[in-house]
Structures are given as C-alpha cells and as structure tokens.
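User: Can you help me understand a structure? I only have the sequence.
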Amino acid sequence: MAEEKRIISVFFVILQFLIYTVFAMDERLDKVKVQCDYLPLINFAIQQNGASIIHQLSIENTTPAPLKDIQVQITTEPTFGNAAPIAVAQIPPNESICLSSFNLTLSANYFTQLTERLSGNLKIEITSEVESVFCQTYPIDILAYDQWGGLNVLPEMLAAFITPNHTAIVPIIKRAASILGQWTDNPSLDEYQSRTPDRVRKQMAAIYTAITEQQIIYSTIPASFEEYGQRVRLADSVMAQKLGTCLDMALLYASCLEAIGLNALIIITQGHAFAGAWLVPETFPDPTIDDVSLLTKRTAEGIYDITLVETTCMNMGHSSDFDDAVKKANGKLTDGNNFLLAIDIKRARYSGVRPIPQRILHGQVWEVDEKETNIQKSAVHATPQSINPYDLSGNETQTVITKQLLWERRLLDLSLRNNLLNIRITKNTLQLIPANLSCLEDALADGEEFRILHRPADWESPAMDFGIYSSIPESDPMVGFINSELSQKRLRFYLPENDLGKALTHLYRSSRTSIEENGANTLYLALGLLKWYETPSSERPRYAPILLLPVEIIRKSAAKGYVIRSREEETMMNITLLEMLRQNFGITISGLDPLPTDESGVNVKLIYSIIRNSIKNQRKWDVEEQAILGIFSFNKFIMWNDIHNNANKLIQNKIVSSLINGKIEWDVTAEEVDAAYMDRQLSPADIVLPIIADSSQLEAIYEAVHDKTFILHGPPGTGKSQTITNIIANALYKGKRVLFVAEKMAALSVVQNRLAGIGLAPFCLEIHSNKTKKSTVISQLKETTEIIRRTPPEEFRKEAERLLKLRTELNKYIEALHKEYPFGLSLYDAIIHYQLTDVEPCFDISSSYLDNLDKDRFSHWEDAIESLVSTANACGHPYLHPLTGIFIREYSSAIKEEALQTLATFIGLLTAIQSKLPVFSALLENTDIHPTRKDFNIISAIIRKILDIPELTPELLTTPLLNETLEEYRKVTEHGRKRDEIKAEIENGFTKEVLKINAGPMLAEWNRVSVQWFLPRYFGQRKIKKVIRPYALQPVKPETVQPLLHQVIRYQEELDFTDRYAAKLPSLFGRFGRDEEWPIIDQIIHEVSSLHSLLLSYSKDVAKTSRIKQNLALQLTEGIRTFRDIHSHSLNELYQLVDTLTATEQRLSTTLGITVETLYTNSADWIGIALQQAGIWKENLDKLKDWYQWLQSYNKLNELGLGFIAEEYKEKNIPTDLLTSSFRKSFYQAVIHYIIAKEPTLELFNGKIFNDIITKYKQVSANFEDITKKELFARLASNIPSFTHEAIQSSEVGILQKNIRNNARGISIRKLFDQIPILLSRMCPCMLMSPISVAQYIDADAEKFDLIVFDEASQMPTYEAVGAIARGKNVVIVGDPKQMPPTSFFSVNTIDEDNIEIEDLESILDDCLALSIPSKYLLWHYRSKHESLITFSNSEYYDNKLMTFPSPDNIESKVRMVAVDGYYDKGKSRQNQAEAQAIVDEIARRLRSEKLRRKSMGVVTFNVVQQALIEDLLSDLFAFHPELETFALECEEPLFIKNLENVQGDERDVILFSVGYGPDAEGRVSMNFGPLNRAGGERRLNVAVSRARYEMIIFSTLRSDMIDLNRTSSIGVAGLKRFLEYAEKGTKRILNTSTNIRTSEEETSIEKIIADKLRSSGYTVHTDIGCSGYKIDIGIVDTQTPSNYQLGIICDGKNYRRTKTVRDREIVQNNVLKALGWNICRIWTMDWWEKPDEVMASIQAAIAQDMKAEKPVIVKKEQEKREKNVQETPMQLKSACAYTNFSFISVQNYNSTKIRPFLYAADDIFAKRNNPIIVSQVQKIIENEAPISKTLLGKKIISEWGVNRVGPRIDAQLEIIFDTLHLYRIEHDGLIFCWKDEAQYRSYSEYRPDSDRDAADLPPEEIANAIQQILINSISLPLPDLAKACAQVFGFTHMGSNIEASMLRGIQEAVKRNYAKVENGRATIID
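Assistant: Let's start by predicting it. Here is the structure, written out as tokens:
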C-alpha cells in the first residue's frame, strides 16, 4: 500500500506539471505556443541554494511569418523575486526556441520574514515588436522559512535544514565530548582521524547520549509528511521547546554529527525518519539513494561502513541506549517496501546544498543564543558496545588461477537451470526458519547433530518472495524462539509436519542414491543467499547459495525422525556463483580461497562481509542470511566433483601434472621403434594383431604397450578405430588393463563392435552413459561369467615362427636389393644406371677397389675422370705423346728453359761417358761383361773402393773363402784390442815385467790363505806380495793383489790368441798387419768385404768375380801405391763422370720427373737409347705445357689408385667423349658383380619362386590372424575364475554371484565395482566409457589402468578428460588436430550464425600438442575409393603426408561442382532455396535409379537453417513418394543430412555438399560464411570435405572467384576458396600432388626403363600414378576406355622399398588396390636384369588376359566379416591355467602310515639297541606323511611303543633320532614341521583336506596352498571369511582360537610365498 500511495503522489505532481504546461490558443494570442517547466513550490532553502525556479521555457512560432524583436518578461506575485527581461531577435515561421537561463533573483529578506505558507504566481508575458503575443500566470506555493517541501520536489533540500554551525547545538557537542572522555579516556571529537570505525561509532553514541539528556518530548509527525513536506523545528526551536518530531530529532542529530565532522545520513521510510552516519570517510555517488540494499549491505555485521540510529529513542520516556537505537533503526529496513529514500548529507553539500542561515529570535531582535543547557554533570551513561569491523584489505589479493581452477570453472553450469545460481523451494530444497547461521555452522563443524522439526503449529509462514520465504523481522518473537531451539539442537523448517516428513524422506533417499551411484555427496546446507538481478532493470530477484556445508540426513527411528549432521568434508564456497559473478558481471571476489575460518569452522560473518563489500555498488543486490537444506548439483557436477575433491590424487598422475605445470614431467627421450625394425626383429607372437594393420598403425600398437604416452594423429579414413581395436587387443594380450574413453556413443560403439568382431566382447564392459541401468551392467557381467574356456591353439607359437621365417625371407631380398653400400649405391641403383648408360664398359675394376670405397672417395674418382676428360679435350689425347716419360709437378717458362739446358747437359755427359767407359774394362781386363746403367753405378763404387782402401794385398784379395777369412781376422782384431787395453791398464801401476809372472798358482795360493786364520793368512799373503812388490810402481795393498792377478791371467790368455795369427798378419794386411794397427785392419776387412760384394754384383757370377780379382791381384803385386800411381787419373776422371751423371739424372728427375727407369733400358746400349730419348724430349719441349695438364689429371687418378684408367685410356686410345660413360658403366658392372657375389639371396633369386613365397606368406598371415584371436580369447578366459559353483558370499566371486541373482538390488554400480575390484579387472580388463561415466563409476583410489585410450580427442575438452587420464598410468590420445574442436556453435538453433564469433573450447589434444608430448601418425588413407576425394584435404591440411591409393579410373576427378542458379537469402531466412532444391532433386534421381541407389548418400550443409530447409523439402518429396523414403532410410547406411558441426565421424559413398552461402538477391557476396570465419573454421571444412568414399558433388551458387580474400583474414574462408577452385578445375589444375620434388634417382628408376620399353612396343603408359607419397609405378592406359588403366605394374624400386613392412607391401596395399579394381602385375629387378625379354612377355600376357576377361560391374558389396566362429572346446584345468602365474595346486588324500606294533615295554624306547627300529618308523612316516608336525610325528611313534605322551626325556630321544636322519625342519611360532628334504619344502604345491589332524598339526605351507586355491576361485575375501573357508577345507566346522591361529599362520605363509596380498582386512589373489 505504501508503494502504491507513493506512486499516486508522484502521479499528481506530474499531473500538476502537465496542467501548468500551457498552450496559448485564444483568438487574439494564437501566434505562439509556450511550454513552461518550473518548480511548483519554493522555500528559503531553495532560495539560499540558488535553485532554478524555471528550468525551461519553449516558444514556438505558429505563424507563416517570422516574429521579431521578442521580449520575455517574468514577474512574481507577491514580489518574492524579480527578473530582467529577455530579448530574442526573431523566431522563424513554424520554428521554436528554447530558453533555459533566467535571471530570476529571489529575495532572501522576503523568505526570512515568512512564517506561514502562501500561494503565489509567476507571470510570463511575451511581446513581439511591442505587440503582446502571450501572457499567462502560473501558480506556485511559497513555503515558510522553516518548511521542507517533501520528497517530490528536490528531496535533497532537506540537507539545508541540517545546521551544523547553529549555536544551539554547542552545549550538546561539549557534553558529548565529556561523555566520550568518560568512555574512552579521550574526549577528542576527532571524526575520522583515528581511521577506526569503532571510534567513530562511539562519537555517534556520545552525541546520542548528550541529546538524550536534553529530555526532549516526542511530537507526532504530520501524516504523509514525506510527500508534502512539513514545518521543521531547527535546533534552537527543539532545544527551546524541548519538543520534536522524528524528523526534527533526525535533523538535530545529523546537525550535531556534521558539526563534529561526520558524514551524516537521513533515512525516510513510510511515515518515519531517522538518521545515521558513515563510519568510514566515504559518501554515496548521488545525494539521494532509493535502493535499500546499499544501506543494508553496509550496515551488516562485519562490514560496519554505516551505522543507523533510531533518533526517536533520544526522546524523553524512552529508555533505549545507543545499541538499542541502532538495532531498532536496522529493523526499520527489514521490510524493504517501507523504505523511500536516504539522503547523504555530505554528498548533498558537494552538490551545493548549504545549511540555511541561523535564526534565533530574542524579543524583536534575531540573535545567537549561546546559553548552555543545565544538565546534571554526574549522570553516568552505559558505554556503547565496541564494534570490530572485519579487515577486508587482505581481500584485494588475487586468487591464483591454476589449471585445476580453470578446469573446474569450465565444468560449471552458469545457466538459470542450475539451482546453485537460481534456487527455488522445490521437493529437493527445504528452507530453514532463519536462525543464527554463524552459530549453526560452528555447531555443525564441531560435530553436533540437530533434529529437524516442522514449523510451530501456531505460527503462519511469511509470504514467499519469488520462490523464497521472506526474512523475519528482528522484532518478531519467532526470532527468539528459533534461536532458543537452535541452542537445544533443533532446527525448524517452514513446512508443516506432514509435508516435512515426506520432503525429508525424499532428500534422504536422493542423497544416498547420489553417493552410491556417483560417489559424490550432493546434499548440502546452504548458508546465506545472494540476492541478485540479471540486469539493472530486472524486477525478479534470483537467489544463489553462498556457503555449502556438506551434511547428511540420518534417520534415527520412525518415532525420533531425522537428524542432520555435518559430513567429514570441508565447507565450500559456491564456486559456480563466484564464476558467474566473474564472467557475467566482472566481479572478482578475492579472499575466499581458502575460506576464512574461526575457532569452530569457517567464519560465516566474515564471508558475508567479503561478499557484501564486493557487491555493495550493485543496485538492489544483497546477502540474505537464510539457510536452505537441499540437493545441489548440475549436469557435469560429477566431473567437477571428481576434479575438485581429488585434486591431490590427480596431480600424482604424470600426464595431469604435466598439463597443470605446462611442461612434460617424465622422460620422453626413449628411442622410438620403427616399423621396419619391428618387421625385422619382432616375432608375430610378440605383438598381437587380430585385425590387419599397416606400418604406421603397427608403430602405435607397439608403443602403446611399452609404457609410452603419446598422441596418435588420425586423419580422416586412416583406420583410427581399427588401430584402437588392435591397441586394446595387444594390451590385453600383454596382461594390461585398458580404459577406452570416448565422448560420443557413436565413436565408442564403433570400437566396441570391432572388439566384439574379434571375439573380445565378453572381456569388455561398456558403460558410456552415467545413467546406465544396473541391469545392463549386470547382464554384461553375467555373460562374461558364462563364457566357455577354450583350449589355446597349440600351433600359435609354431605358426608365429613360420610367419617370421617367411617375413624374414621376403625382407632379405628387398634389403639386399636396396642395401646401400659405402660407395653410395645399391644393387638396384647400379642396375638402373648400368642399363641407362649406352656405352660398353672398357675397364676391369677389381672388387678389391670396392672393399674400402666410400662416397667421398668415389666422388674424387669422378672428379678426377672429369678432369682427365677436360684436359684431353683441351690438350689432346695422350696416346703416343712424344713427352711420355716426363712427369713434371709444375710448369713455367723458367722450368721449360731449365729442362732444355739439363737435357743438353745430359746428352753431352752421356757422350763423354761413352768414350771413357773402355778404360775401366781394360783395367779389369774385360771378361765379356756388357755393363748396363745400373752396372755403371757399381763400377763407380768399385773404383771408389780401390782408390780409398788403406791397403789391398794380392794375397788377401785372392784368398779362398774370403768372407770366412775376413770374419776370422775380425775376431783377431777384437782380441788384439782387448790385450792392448789390459796391458795399458796393468802398466799404470806396474812395470811390464809383471806381465810375465806365473799368475795362476799365485792366485790359487792367495785364495787358499785368505780363508785361513789370521796369522797364516797374514804370512801367506805377505809372501805373495813380496814376489809382486819388485814390479810395483807404488806400495802393494792387499786388496789390489787379487784383481792384478786376474788381469795378468786375462792378458796372457789374449796374448796367446793373437800370437797364433801374428805370422800371417803382414802378408794379409801389409804394414798395418805387421804393426798390429787393429782399427785400420778392421777398416781394411770392411772395405775388402764391400769390394768383394761389388765385384760379385758387377760380374753376376762367382767365377767371373774370381777372374776379375786374379787380374786385379796381378796389378797389385807392386803394392797398392804403385797401382794408384799408374791408374788414379783415369779412374778419378771416370768416377767424376759418374758423379756428374748422377747429379744430372737428379736434375732431370727434379725438373722433369724423369726417372732412371724411364731414361735407361736394361741393356748394354743404354747410353745410345738414352741419347735418342733425350733428343726426342729436347726437340718437343714446346709441348711441355700441354703435357703438364695431362700429367695433372693423371696424377689425380694415380693418387686415387686409378692410374690404370688413365693408362688404359692412353694406351687403348679410348675416345675421350666416351671415357666418363665407359668408366661409370664399368663401375656399375663391377658393383653389380660385387654385390651379387656378396648376397646369396640375390645370386639365387627367381621371381616365380619369390611370388610363391609371397602367396605362402599371405596364406600363413591370414591363418595366423584367426589363430591369434583364439589365442587371445583363451588367454583372457583363463583369468576368469569358475562360476559353476557357489562361492563364499564375502568373496568377490560370491558378491558378484549374489548381485547377478538379485539383479544388483540395493546396490549401485559404483559400489559393486568397489566391492569386486580384482575380479572386475580379470573379467573385464577393458572398459569402454565416457568421461562422465569414468568420474561416476571408477573411484580415484582404485587400481590404475595400465593404458587409457582417448578417441576423438580433438572434440574432448581437457577439463572433461583429466579425470579419466588420472585413472591410468599411460595415455594414448587419438585424434586429429586438423578436425573438429569441441564447440557449442549449433547447440541452440536460434543463434545468429551470420554474426556470431565465439572461440572454440580447448581440447585435450590441443593441450597435449602444446606440451610437445611425442606424436605418432597414421598415414595410410583407406576411406576414399577415389584419390581425388581426399586429395584436397591431403594437400591443404596434411602437407601431402597421407598415403592415398589411386584407383584404376584415377585419370578423372570424382569431385565435381554443380553450378546452381539462385541466391542466398542473407539477413532473412539465411537459406539458399535453389541449392536445397537441386540437392533434393539429385537425391530423388539417385533413389529412382536401381544402380545409383546402391551407393549410400549423405548431405552436408554449412549451417543449421540450410540443413532444415533440405530436410523440409525432402519430407515433402517423401510424402508424395513414400517408396523413395524406404530406399533412403531402410538400408544399411541411411541417408543423412547434417551440418559442419555434427558430421564428424560419419561417411557415405556419395556426399552432396550444399555451400548455402553465396550472392544475395542483389548479387552482393558477404565474406561471412558462418562457422568458417571463426578460428578453427578450416578444421570444420576439412571434416566436411573428407566424408565421401566414392564421389562428392558440390551444389553451389557461389564460385571461387566471388570470394575476395582481401576482405577477410579467415583461414577457413581461404580454404573454401581453394576447395571451390579444386572442384571447378580438377585435381591437376589446382594442386601440387607430389609429396616432394622428385630426385634424380627416382626419375631414373626401373619403372622408367620398363615404361620406355613398353612405349616402344606401342602402349600408352603413365608412371608414378597417384597424388600422394604412394604411387603405382606404371599404369597402362586402357585403349577402349582412356579414362581407366588396363594394368598396373608394381616394381621393387624406391616406392616398394619405402614401405616399411612385408605386411604393407604384400597384403595391406595389395588388398586395397584389388578392392579398388586394379589388375596388378609384379616385376622384380633381378628378373629384369637377368631375363628382360621374359619380363616383357609376362607383361604383354597380363595385358592380353585382361582384355579377354569380362569387365565386372563395380558394385558396392557389404563388408564381410573375416572373423570365423571358433569351435568352443572345454578346457582342461591344466590348460585353463596356462596363462596364469599360479603354481599348479593339487589336492591329495592324507596317507596315514600303518606301523606294525612291537610288544616292548615303555622303557624299551630308550634302549639304544632299539634306535634302528625307531629310525625305520620315522622314515616310513616321513616318506608317507611329510610335511608333518614334530608333535604329530612324535605321537605316532610313541603310540607304537605304548607311551601315552611325549615328555622331555622322550623328546630328547626323538631329537637324537631326527638329527641322525638329518630331517629338514621348519619352525613357525614355536611349532616344528618336518619335511623329507629342502627340495620338497621349496616345491611343495599340495594340500590334504581329508585328515584327522589337529589345526596345530597343519603345516602353514600346506594351508597356504589351500588358500591359493580358494582365492583362485574367489579372487578376494575378508580375512575372517578366508580363515573360515580354509578351516572348512580341512574339515573344521567351528572356529576356535587354535584353528584361527593355524589359519592365520597359513595366510602369513601365503603372503610370504606371494600367493596373496592383504590390504584393508582383505586377502586378494596375486596374478
């Protein structure tokens, strides 16, 4: 009602304005229309503040003539103001002017004297050229001096009545200072200087208390004062009259506050006014505030920016202190509907509103009254409560934005559907009657429980405000009751009892289901609601929870009802709300991460304050302190919760951690394995391939099981799903667990179907949806339990080895053929080059040259040959050149001149020698010796010896056996030297006579006496010294005697030796022999020996040498001196000639490189021949320069070891122009022979046999695929325990059996998985899930998967993928970064596609690429049945790296453009009617044709509206022709119509493409093509244009030349232009279809040679057919159909070699080519080399056969599944365990030993004579019953001896027996068990259930074996159940302490033996 009244009042004011807006229309004054906008009332405050009375005056000339000389006159009545006239020159006809500046001055004196309200007028008169054209009066109210005009006119003028400088308030200020001093010991009224809100508040309280002391009586305020105003008592009047209304008291209080410097506020509500102030030095943006939330947010607890005071509490009769007045003032704002306005006094002052002048009447004179009020000074007032505002300064710190936070944000739902942003009271939410939320949170945090109760029966709930119950005012008694209930641990809700019970039951069940199904709690107590509005103009508030306290509802009993308590989880902030505020409103709230805490939990009040502080400038927004219990969740809550609650677990994963930190955090340096290496080294049994795989797929499959994380790039049609299937199969084969994750069910289904196709369906569990039915999961698990185990194929390993052998054999040939040797050639290269070289080989290059030849050396060879050719061309052929023999290293004219002189010298010298040579012959009396040049050197040496020898006697020269004689006398000289040395040494101390003494006996005597006693020794030695002393030159010392005697003895020995030869020395050595000059004799011996050797060399015959020496001896009879006197001159002359000749020869060698061998022949006429050759050289020296050039080239070859090439070239006169070719062909020939000789594979190669091997390989490979599937199935099935018998209920098998029986009643899927983790991993080692189902069903703490495989990763956002990634150890990210990213482009059909620009979401693929995670690439494209369909994508997006297959009709493109005459309806329907109709017509045409409709069809459009149009037109077509609908939809691949965004993953035979965009009706073409314009548009285009298998037809009104790339920078649009060009012009015209520039080697290939040969036979031949890296080597064009190839030829050249594996070469590529329709012929290089004619004949035969064959009609056949049903064979237990790590456990009967009793007395057991009997008994028992406890063994023995028990004495006796037998014993907890030996103990694998043994007698090892068998069948059991089950096996029906202890020992032994592991009280089998 109050709001309605206010609206009515405002309406009347507006109406008054309209009434006073007058138009002068009477007959006389109809020339103008006047509109006046003015204030309807005026008072002193308005006058004082200079407000404009008239805001605007508008004058319109309504005449057809201008009005001139206009004057406007304004007058007032009464005269409260005056104004000067306003002149206007003229107003044109029918125009108007607007006046807004009026000099109307109001009289201050008039308003000062005014004591009552008056009515007055404003008069406006307008004249034109002195003639009056308008005159009108306007009514105006004139208010008294102290009268306020209300809220309707300038409400801020109320601030003028606040008079801080009035003298009447001085006493109040002074008293307030005194009171403040009492409270704080500081009386200073220091306004905001302390910067402490509490200090400011105490100042306010002091003012409040001081005014309260004035005893002012309350006066009732007039009704509706706020609308019409009222008389105001100023401060002096209030103080004088002691009377005041609520407004008077508020103004007085505000005046005092302003007087002490505080920023005061006046608040106006319905019928009431009160005051307040800022506690901080701030103001509002505007003087007046009409949004109550701006106050409530700033007065809230913990904020304390403003304090409001109920000022009527200061009136006499009220006992309220300041704190009560504050509470009452806040209570006035509880109901926001009563609030009208607040006025910020400080802000009003900024706007120019000043206090009115003071007016205090004393008699007839206005004066200031300074009299103080008399107040009791002793009054004591209560100190106001202190306030402690929260320090929010720390909130300015920014929240650290982490990857995890970004992921969480992306998962949030920011729509109004989310009750975390827009809560409403529904069956999932219950609203509490508001209590103290801070206390409630503290109590719950302390673990308190609260009963949930209904609302009080006698209390009516308040009205609901937009779905939420309104707040209860503080004054409502219910508030106290609710807080009392809170203290008693009871919570009250708004619902009545019956409704509350139903609602709580629903919440209880929903929350329990959420935890069981999702593993996430969704029941929260929302503490506090943010009231917010979508826009400033929104009327409907939204409510969002602020704090979410995780709670649980517990049902105590039917009688006690429900209680609520906190879960052991942290209270959290509503991050959805924070993110919405950040994104939608730009409000970032800091300081809440982590949440601030207090003593018991989070600090609720501080959190509210932080939020209020952040939103305090938002109109109408506020924090509602309400609480709601409810289910809070959203669509992706499960994934959000998974990331949020498992952050620490996620980051432990290496991939997630890398994504968070932006760098790879594991070692990725491991070398990648190449498929070629695998093909050579890996056995087929090492990598399982149930589906055939190419080499690029093989590499990925291999890496996936070797702990590698990588990205697998899968372009369109490259077999991604096939590869994924193989990856999963191989991983399962290797014993790994795999999680396959796909966002779309379609992608998951493809892989699931492929896995089913290879027989793995039972081992794969599919849970794509998080809403999967339990029955579906249970059904899948039930099927797995029912599988029949199959016997593993025995031939698996054998066939694998066989396949490897065949593969190796096939690889050997290609490796040998293409093996590049160090010299840079393979056999293949050599054969090609040999056949292309059209000359004959002329050189025989030995294989030894090739052994160490490398590329560099061969390059030098070629350079040298080229240099030789170049020289020969320039200087002529060297054949028979006159300068042959000259080898100069450099050339110059000086060298040439020197050569001329040297040759002349040489010729002269030879002539002289020729004349002197007979002298020597005469000397030797020539004996028919004809000396050569070499002999001439010997002659020179002989002469030199004869001239230089000291003595040469005839006797010595002619001595027979000269060498022996010389050797004999060489020894004589040695003895002679030694004799002389000893003699000289002795004579240094003795005379020479001493040399003759008999030293021998003397030395013996000396030695004899030296060992005697002192005196005999002395006398004996003295006697000898006495003999020696006469010869001594100095005294003889005893120590010198013995050495002397030794030397004398040696001298005498040497003397005897030389004396034997002394007589012959003179005759042999002349005077030197006579004088015994040993050094010269030595020299003579040496010289004679040399002379003898020279003579022998000269004569070359011993007899001739003897004759020469005889002749020479005759000439020496007179002595050597006489001989020399006669012959020395002639001999010296000849000798000098020899020296000169040698020097000249050296000069010839140095200057011209002429060797002695070149100069001379080995003949007697060497001088004549040399003279002739020297003459030729001398005459031809003018050709020396050219000869030098030739020599340079020759030297190069010679240095390289190829001198023979130059020699043969020169000698054989090989033509220069053929030299290079001949050399190369010779080299190629040598290489061919060299390599073939080294490679037996090549030497024995036969193409037909090789083809047979290939055929065999294909057969074995196909067979091995089938065997592989059987092997894989058997291996996986062996891991599944038997379900044929009922298992222990608590075991994992028992749990599953129970749930299968009752269809999992009462248990969720997630809980079931948690209970059977080991069994589930054995039964279903592969799980296929979506990201959300992973988060829902797989616990983050569960055992990690070995491998996670993501499909379509380019469409999966990272934030959805990380949860799944964290569940694994390694990840394979499969996707194509060139295809669709995640997007929401078409999620709403109403969006404007022409103008939208949004960013693609980030994908896990993009993130992993940014991390540089290693990548693998699928490179072979299989989808397109015609290469032109993928050529554009391959060229545009994949850099031509895709290997695509050409088809036989590859000559023409299958991508074509159909130009449509139409237009794009831009801006309206955004459709292209003509294109749509053309496509529908084409669909109809194809469906009507039986042949054409065999090929499936799909339609792709650029946008949704074009898609819808085609669908509508097609529906119309089908309505009239239903049979066409049947053809289109009821087939294996139905017709689809999709757009760019949702076509990924689909493919059809024929794709019809509608561009849609194009010229509009006016022919204009916009460059906006919807999604193509965005970033990533090119990826959408790539997807769209790669969907066709056989044909793609583009229907378009748009042509490529219409796209202007200057008008757009979009990559996607540029791609569209090129695509349209491609469609218009065809493959060859637009694309560079080769992978790279062809090298010269590839150009000269075997296929070129064969092609040339075929062309010469008349065939039309193309080579290198294909647009990618894969080529058909040769294609023979069909003469009948020139667009097709008749025959394809594949050689074993470079294309063949580039293929990495045998499977690729012989199976994969071959199968694809056959499927495409190729007729393929294989040509082998070795066959071509050895028998080319046969090869040509085989090609011609293949062509002829193809021409005879009937051409088949190419019809698309359904894909036949190659998988065959494998006969299921029951499996023996041994086979069943073939693939487990379990030792084979056998069950045996217990064989109790029967021993014949002996009739001995009990004491006989101790008799030693009986020990052998006891030993025998022990041996028998051990042999039968071991292992056996020592106790039981003892009992059995003594029972035969009549002894009742084993005492210490008997135990000792038995111990002696055991030691004698050396029994192997093991101790367990004091119990001893006996074994046969250690071998039995180590290998024991039995247990014996049928026995009467006590539990303590059971060996723990035996129990451990039983436990293993139990766990094999049960997988996992709680320890008590396992112990019980094991006890039952051994026959114990009841458990006792001894049995339990025995079982526990067995469990410990099982763990020790690695049979089982124990965790969390459960025993689990170890694989």
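Now, to help you interpret it: The longest strand covers residues 542-557. The two ends are 80 Å apart (CA to CA). Let me know which part you'd like to focus on.
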